[in-house]
Write a structure and sequence with these properties.
six-stranded mixed β-sheet, 48% helix
Length: 294
C-alpha cells in the first residue's frame, strides 16, 4: 500500500516517490536515451522518423507562403529538381547532413552539374518531419531559411524528397533548391512543371540512379510512410505520456493523502529530485525531437 501512498506514521513519501525511486527513474531515462543513440550503430534502420511528404504539396505550400508576402510564384524546374535529388542521394551515400559535404562538395556543384547557369541560387534542407506543411513552416520560422523562402531573387525551384538511412536512423530528407537562370528566356515552362509533378506522383526520380556499387546505400525517392520497427517521435511521445502520467498520478495521490492525514514531508530534496526528473524527460525529448532544418 505504501508503495503508492505516504506512510502516515513515519512521515515518509510513498516508496515509488522516494529519492531512491526518483534516482532509478532518472537512470532509466538515461538508459533509454543511450539505447536510442547506440542501436542505430549496430542495427541501422530499426529506428526512424516516418513521414508523408511530397513535392506537389511542398511546391504549393512554398508558393502559398510567398503569396502571403506578395512574392512571385516560383516555377518548378527540372534541372534544379535533378540537382536536389543528386544532393539528397549524395547525403545518404556519404552519411552526412550539411550544405557542404565532408569532402568539400558545395550545393552549387549539384546545380552546375545539371548545366543550370544561374545568377542567384540557394538551398534549404530538412529532415525528420512528418508532413510537407511542417517542413515549409519550419523553414519560414528560421530567419536564414525564410530569406531563401521569400527571396525576390529567385524565379525557379526544385525539390527532392528522399527516404533512406542517415546516421543509422531511417528518415526522410527534403532538399529545396532555388535559382534564377542567367538567361530569363530559359525559365521553365508550365509543361515542364507538369511533367515533374506527374513524375513525383509516380514516385519516379528525375535523376537516374548510378549503377549499384557493392556496399552502397540504397536511396528511395518520394516514398511515404517509411516502414520502421520503432518510429522515434511516436515512441518518445508515448514514453513521456506513460512515464509522466505515472509520476503525476503518484504525486496526486501523495498530495491528496498527505493533506487528508496531515502528513508533512515535502522537502527541498524532493523538489530537487522532481526537477531533475523533469529535466531528464525534457532532455531526452530534445535529443530525439523530430523536425530539423539546415
Amino acid at each position: 500500500m505504501y508503495h503508492f501512498l505516504p506512510h502516515p506514521e513515519l512521515n515518509q513519501r510513498a516508496t515509488l516517490l522516494s529519492n531512491k525511486a526518483l534516482f532509478i527513474y532518472c537512470l532509466l531515462i538515461i538508459l533509454v536515451a543511450a539505447l536510442f543513440r547506440f542501436i542505430p550503430r549496430f542495427v541501422p534502420g530499426v529506428l526512424g522518423y516516418a513521414s508523408n511528404i511530397n513535392i506537389p504539396d511542398l511546391l504549393t505550400d512554398t508558393n502559398t507562403m510567398r503569396a502571403q508576402y506578395g512574392k512571385k510564384e516560383l516555377r518548378l524546374n527540372a534541372a534544379l529538381t535533378r540537382a536536389a535529388e543528386k544532393k539528397a542521394a549524395h547525403m545518404f551515400e556519404h552519411d552526412y547532413w550539411a550544405h557542404i559535404s565532408p569532402d568539400g562538395v558545395e550545393p552549387w556543384s549539384f546545380i552546375l552539374g545539371q548545366n543550370y547557369d544561374y545568377v542567384y541560387a540557394g538551398e534549404n534542407l530538412a529532415k525528420n518531419f512528418q508532413t510537407s506543411k511542417d517542413v515549409v513552416q519550419a523553414w519560414y520560422d528560421s530567419p536564414s531559411h525564410r530569406d531563401n523562402l521569400l527571396s525576390p531573387n529567385y524565379d525557379e525551384i526544385g525539390f527532392a524528397v528522399a527516404n533512406g538511412v542517415l546516421n543509422g536512423y531511417e528518415t526522410t530528407l527534403v532538399v529545396q533548391m532555388f535559382g534564377r537562370p542567367r538567361d530569363l528566356a530559359k525559365i521553365a515552362p508550365a509543361s515542364e512543371e507538369r511533367k515533374i509533378l506527374e513524375a513525383a506522383k509516380s514516385e519516379i526520380p528525375l535523376a537516374e540512379p548510378a549503377p549499384a556499387v557493392s556496399g552502397e546505400k540504397k536511396t528511395q525517392f518520394a516514398v511515404p510512410n517509411i516502414p520502421t520497427l520503432i518510429d522515434v517521435p511516436s515512441f518518445m511521445r508515448g514514453f513521456a505520456l506513460i512515464f509522466g502520467g505515472f509520476i503525476s498520478l503518484l504525486l496526486a495521490l501523495d498530495m491528496w493523502y498527505s493533506q487528508k492525514n496531515g502528513i508533512k514531508k515535502f522537502t527541498g530534496h524532493t523538489l530537487f529530485h522532481l526537477t531533475l526528473f523533469t529535466l531528464a524527460i525534457m532532455g531526452i525529448w530534445l535529443l530525439f525531437r523530430p523536425g530539423l532544418v539546415l
